[in-house]
Fold Transposase.
Amino acid sequence: MKEGLPPVTYDRRDGFQLSNASEVWIAYERAVFRSELHRVTNFITGIVAPHSKKTPEDEWIRLVLEQLGGVKATLEVLTRMER
């Protein structure tokens, strides 16, 4: 278990189990959002942006950029929100 993350357990019968404290759920969710933000940002920077630069008129890559931009913005908001 990484330091700073709440304890999470999983078993087939009961699924994911978290503490009864909602602060624990929120901390875990924010950690997941930060991780996904990092992955999306890296994907945009390393794969999507170079594709877009190479073929700027490609309808597919414009759609991908627009949609991933929205996902990235949402994740950024979710990682910054204070309770």
